[in-house]
Amino acid sequence: MTPKARKHKQTILGFALLGFGTLLVLVIALIPRFFSKAYDPQTLCLLEVPLQTHVLILVDRTDPLTPLQSVIFRKLLLRERAALRPHAKLSVFTVTDTTGVLEDQRFSMCSPGHREDANLLYENPQQVQRFFERRFEEPLDQVILDLTGAQVAPQSPIYQSLLKVLRRPDFTWRVPQRRLILLSDLMEHTAAFSHYNTSKFEIMLTLAPFLAPLDLDQVDLEVYYREFPFKLPDKAQKHQIFWEELFRASGAVRQRWLTF
User: Fold this and answer.
1) pLDDT single digits (tens) 106-116
2) Looking at the domain assignment, is residue 1 inside a domain?
3) pLDDT digits 0-9 by tens, 161-201
4) Backbone angles phi, psi at 46, to 5 degrees
5) CA dist 29 to 32, 34, 60, 127, Å?
6) Is residue 44 part of a domain?
7) 116 and 2 inside one domain
8) Do 5 and 116 have their domain in common?
9) Beta pairing class for 177-184 and 53-60
10) What are the percentages of helix, strand and coil residues in the chain, rounded to 5?
């Protein structure tokens, strides 16, 4: 091979390597665009993929939490946050004296995932973790601080609050895995219906608070039942049975009761 031919061959090889290198860089740069999924900037939920899991926590704020109950509540939220899979949704709502009319949403977002969930092909684990902490972890920490403060309300519209959260579009049968975690003494107290009216307590325990049915079909229910306000063990037992039967008739697939 003459020097001229050799030089020509090297030039062609150089251009080929340059073209291959440029193509490789371009492919690497475009990988995140091909594999990343669009999400809602407010909720961080995927836009083109149906929601598969939603954990909804409803906290009764019509009576103050004791220091011990506040600790349990905080641990509960931290546990649920840590266990949440990427793109699953966690929501926190409260029962206040106005939730019969207005929904009190404190937090409702999908988890973007931890560093362990990063796809090393196109994601940086450190960036994924920082995004999780800034957009998901820190806002939820603020909710925990806000909800552990003392509060008292003149009414406890627990049933109406349940009706509202169970009618949310992101908590219907279209979401395959739904868990409802309820923290309350379940002492329904409104102008129309009150469990505090001890003179009619026995009668009220035999009636549903309202005609509108709850839709708990295929919902996994977890109840953190606060101490019954009256030192009457027989009434306390009947009170819990009343709600257990109501939830069962409403379709709850499973009930787990814990006293706190």
Assistant:
1) 899 999 888 77
2) yes
3) 998 899 999 999 999 999 999 999 998 888 878 888 766 66
4) -65, 140
5) 7, 10, 49, 17
6) no
7) no
8) no
9) parallel
10) 45, 20, 40
